[in-house]
Amino acid sequence: MQAGLREARARLQVGDFAGVVRTLSPLVAKNARNAELLFELGRANVQLNRFDEAKRSLNQALRAAPSVGAIHLELSKCHQYEGRFEEAIGACDRALKIKPGDALSLARKGETLRAMGEREQAYELLTPLVKGGKLRTGEHEAALIFGRLCLPMKRYQEGVDALERALADDRLPRIGRSMMLYQLGALLDALGEYDRAWQAFVEANNLQKPRIDPDAYGKQTDEVIATWTREAVAKIPQAQRIDETPVFILGMPRSGTTLVEQILASHPEAHGGGELALLPRVLQNLRPKQEDGRRVDDLSLLTQGAVDRAARKYLQELKKLSREAVRITDKLPLNFLNLGHISFLFPGANVIHCKRDPLDTCLSCYFQGFGGELTLTNDLTTLGRFFRAYERRMQHWQEVLDIDILDVQYEQLVAEQESQSRRLVEFVGLEWDDACLEFYENKRVAHTASVDQVRRPVYSSSIDRWQNYEKHIGPLREAIGEQHA
After folding, report:
1. Among 40, 204, 286, 377, whose Cα sits 20 to 30 Å from the Cα of 326?
2. Same structural domain, 204 and 221
3. Which residues pair with 328 in a beta bridge?
4. Neighbours of 153 (CB within 10 A)
5. pTM value?
6. 189 and 94 belong to one structural domain
């Protein structure tokens, strides 16, 4: 058991959260009251956005070890990410009751207040922890959150100072140091210190080197194009239930998907589901089984019954998010990989494809510490080749699938907010509502890298941002291709 726990913690350190779940699940099945195992399993599921599974493990851990504050703090994350802010604050307060003045508990409470939009309150809470001399152990998390807070509050230099004090500690774990460097880069970018910002971003990404072949997605795209021909697609059974509830918002990460979702989620008849891992899980079970039990990617083996069951399962889970909403968004950008399956599982669904300038898109990815499956964004060449594969994939889908796709160009949405917002609402079949123009007043939780951006009106400062870094992006230009040079 201890060996498994050590392996799981090592995987956590490098962001392999799915690997943690694979390692710990069989151990938890045999040791259902072991608080350490349950806690680590819960932590991994939080990172994978599997909040029901996370809460189940963490509540079991809490029953076994009720006085461990760290368990309360992980539960606080679950509640926050689900938009249950009062419960998140309550969990932090319980941790603080166990250990008054604990820096990690105060940092977690500050992060929840930040997510709620209570920036001044979070600032007052965290300032005593991060200002002064060298930060003590436990206060580094507070420095990271303080840095995130300082960006929308335009207290850029304060954030830089706090993060640089924290980064001076050579005991920082690799992932923690990386996340601080990303935030330091963002603050230096806001100050116009682009060369220093670039250096911070490079250091951050070097600490999260990609674990994939740079050409992996290109090879996969070749296989998809060869397999998903118009003839093959025509033979796949279509789900018999026509349901217009799902709205799939997809595209490259950092292409405006969160903004589009926030506009639609501000409509009284719509609900923003966020980045759901639901469809990929459903598709795993849809793949046909061979006689030996292994699942294979063979479109010709799909049956009407399997297609209907998969569609029904997805819709049942989706509608648990809101019983009243007429439209529910699923804003997982990488669902563009699954657009072929979407076409036959949900014939009535609405698909919105978000597009943005390639260089701005890729640099925004490079400037953001995604971790997990998106470690492909940590190398400019890999990132550029992934973008090229994405474009080829989308072009192919539009050639072979009979499905309506609305292309939304980020730059046009920013320049023509009202007309483009009306176009979005009309496309998903809803009547216009002026609340969609004031999306930044919507208090729903946005658990993405754009959480602060969607709390303010549309802005244009992120357009042509790549020009500030032109001398550094040669490898990216080359990898994307001449058409975007």
Report:
1. 286
2. no
3. 246, 271
4. 16
5. 0.85
6. no
Could you tell me which of 258, 445, 270 has the C-alpha nearest to residue 368? 258
CATH of the domain at 14: 1.25.40.10
How many independent structural domains does the chain possess?
3
Domain end position, chosen among 208, 226, 249: 208
| Same domain, residue pair 234 and 200 | no
> Do both 441 and 469 map to the same domain?
yes
Two structure tokens written together for 119: 């920036």
Q: How do the pLDDT tens digits run along the chain, 485 residues long? A: 787 778 777 877 766 788 888 888 888 888 888 888 899 889 988 888 788 899 999 999 999 999 999 999 999 999 998 888 999 999 999 999 999 999 899 999 999 999 888 999 999 999 998 886 666 666 888 999 999 999 999 999 999 999 999 999 888 888 889 999 999 999 999 999 999 999 999 999 998 866 677 788 889 999 999 999 999 999 999 999 999 999 999 999 999 999 999 999 999 999 999 888 889 989 988 876 655 555 557 788 899 999 999 999 999 999 998 999 999 999 999 999 999 999 999 998 899 999 999 999 999 999 997 765 566 788 999 999 999 999 999 999 999 999 999 999 999 999 999 999 999 999 999 999 999 998 876 655 554 444 555 445 556 677 889 999 999 999 999 999 855 54
Task: Name the helix (H) or strand (E) containing 181.
Answer: helix 174-190
Question: Which domain does 248 fall in, by range?
Answer: 216-484
| CATH code, 298 | 3.40.50.300
Q: Dihedral sign, CA of 185, 188, 192, 197?
A: negative
Sorted by sequence, the CB contacts under 8 Å of residue 286 that are 6+ apart come out as 302, 306, 307, 310, 341, 345
Using the 8-state DSSP alphabet, how is residue 238 labeled? P
Q: Are residues 383 and 364 in the same domain?
A: yes
Are 137 and 284 within one domain? no
CA distance 189 to 298: 47
